[in-house]
Amino acid sequence: MKSAKTTATDVLPAEGGLGNDALLEVDDLHVEFVTRAGLVKAVNGVSYSLRPGESLAVLGESGSGKSVTAQAIMGILDMPPARIPQGSIKFRGTDLLKLSEDARAQIRGQRIAMIFQDALSALNPVFSVGWQISEMFRVHRGMSKRDAMKKAVELMERVRIPAARQRVNDYPHQFSGGMRQRIMIAMSIALDPEVLIADEPTTALDVTVQAQIMELLAELQRESNMGLILITHDLGVVADVADKIAVMYAGRIVENAPVRDIYKNPGHPYTKGLLESIPRVDQKGQELYAIKGLPPNLLDMPSGCAFHPRCPYRQDNCVTDVPPLNEINLDRNSACHYWREVLDGSHG
Amino acid sequence: MGRYVIRRLIQAIPVLLGATLLIFAVVFALPGDPIAALAGEKRGNPVVVALLREQYHLNDPLIVQYGYYISGVFQGNLGRTYANVEVSQIIAAKFQVTVNLAITALVLEAIFGVGLGLWAALRRGKATDSMILASTLILVSVPTLVTGFVLQLLLGVQLRRWTGGVEIFPIAGVSDGWISYVVPGFVLAGTSIAYLTRLTRTSLVENLRADYVRTAVAKGMPRRRVVGRHALRNALIPLITFLGADLGTLMGGAVITESIFNIPGIGQELFRSVHERQQPVVVGIVTILVLVYILANLVVDLLYAVLDPRIRYE
Ligand SMILES: Nc1ncnc2c1ncn2[C@@H]1O[C@H](COP(=O)(O)OP(=O)(O)OP(=O)(O)O)[C@@H](O)[C@H]1O
Ligand code: SF4
Ligand SMILES: [Mg+2]
């Protein structure tokens, strides 16, 4: 019997595959950080899945574990301090957590790629953007410098950077925020990944530029049939792009549902709170339902339902019983004991 | 770029003037009459003394004397000693020796400082890291004089016993070519090696935490490339600056090392000239050192622009 970790050659997940099988399946993922203050339980049993061509928006306030989950999928967490005591991340049926570091490096960047929030700090300041994009082809595809540079120009044109040929040797600081994010995107789609994770790709940008970047991502995704995970805490931007939404709170998924359903009728008090805190033109003057209280302390999580200290629907058993991820219907779940009442729309 | 260099050189003029005026004032405030010192124990012929005082403008106010001196400097003339020898002639050969010493020290500093720093950074938190950090502390706290004599004893006396009288590292003079500079160069570089080790470690550790390193990992780049290209290329920037600025410090700091190892460089000459009240030589050497500082800093700034594309000089 071989050791638990496998080598790069034997079981890399198959390319392509049949259309509608799950591309990525995160199941009961736990991530914790060993810190001086104690064990920070950042992710506590997250499950979500993604099919080719599908886009999943992951939503939740700051600190809810969205980025840590994504970093676990990419395999870019520093371990230690991070560790993954439980769960699986299946990519085309193969559990990434069981692969060797070499095998994971084969997947990272080539088949699962990631875009980060702040492109200025995420790009290397001392190399030209062309160098940084073409590096993907040189290192992973063994291309010559010149051919790789040509590819870089093509990619820059594909993400619609004006005068790409002239600008390929410029450095990141010479571009505007929106253009820099386009360069990040060009770099991430260089090798036609099957999954693209975008971690708040527009947070650092102007509103008008945000819309353009979202549009570009949606367009690239349609063209290539890749699965897109879009992390954001802005419910406003996801409606047009996402197929389904997973809402995270305190390191767990509290609700997942197709986009339409969730906007029409949220199935968890936290989702409801998020939706009602988006300002809407037709409700001008009405008081916003902002979620009261503070996000939970990950070092000392509330008992029972982690949301109970802030929840307007709370009943006595919420304080003691952890709600399971109840099935509302085939493609919809809610981690609330009282999801029926929430769906009926009667909140206190 | 060219215009920037010219502007910097022009800006250097007041620095040069200020520094030389200062040293001029200090040196000439030293007690004792140089002409009298020239004559030794006997009292000189008053006519000759008067003539010499006239020739060296010793009767003029300090600022006028300085005026004569500095106008000479701008014509490439460092003046003459009281024994009527060209100062530049005295300095030239010794300057070469000190430059050799300083360059040896700089090379050793770069190899050991950067090497140990990288090693510590890549093993941070482990035993190697702590050991390297502890040894830099020792290196900083032990005076040059002590390291110098200890190494002389170890390499000159003890090692020779082991090798049966064969000298591997010469420990005095410069008669054996480059190898003669190795031990003195190491002693001269000692504290700088310690600082550079720490700077290298900090710089690399900091850059390894940077967002763009995470991006490089997410791109699937091999670890060797992530560290060796992405992080190191950024981490090098402050190190090059430190090394460049240190060249001047090493040349100025050569006084002690040169006397321990009996190396005939400008450090030793400076020491002797102060002793013998050869003001023109003292001022000449300091002027040269100031020039080296200024040029080294200019080169560092230019290198900065080469290494970091965010910096542009117009
Ligand atoms: N290296 C680390 N060491 C300790 N704790 C960490 C570390 N990285 C993340 N955490 C903690 O994990 C929790 C989840 O962080 P994460 O970055 O996933 O939040 P997020 O949902 O992406 O929030 P944001 O919207 O602010 O990006 C946070 O409370 C954070 O403090
Ligand atoms: S389980 Fe209870 S506390 Fe938690 S969200 Fe539902 S109603 Fe609120
Ligand atoms: Mg985040």
Automatic annotation (TrEMBL), chain A:
It is a peripheral membrane protein. Its main location: membrane. It holds the Pfam family oligo_HPY. Residues 24-275 form the ABC transporter domain. Keywords: ATP-binding, Cell membrane, Membrane, Nucleotide-binding, Transport. GO terms for biological process: peptide transport. This is Methionine ABC transporter ATP-binding protein. It comes from Spongiactinospora gelatinilytica. The lineage of its organism: Bacteria, Bacillati, Actinomycetota, Actinomycetes, Streptosporangiales.
Automatic annotation (TrEMBL), chain B:
Coiled coil: none annotated. It is found in: Cell membrane. The chain crosses the membrane at residues 12-30, 101-122, 134-158, 178-196, 235-261, 281-307. Keywords: Cell membrane, Membrane, Transmembrane, Transmembrane helix, Transport. One of its GO terms (biological process) is transmembrane transport. One of its GO terms (cellular component) is plasma membrane. InterPro entries: BPD_transp_1_N, MetI-like, MetI-like_sf. Residues 95-304 form the ABC transmembrane type-1 domain. It is a multi-pass membrane protein. Belongs to the binding-protein-dependent transport system permease family. This is ABC transporter permease.
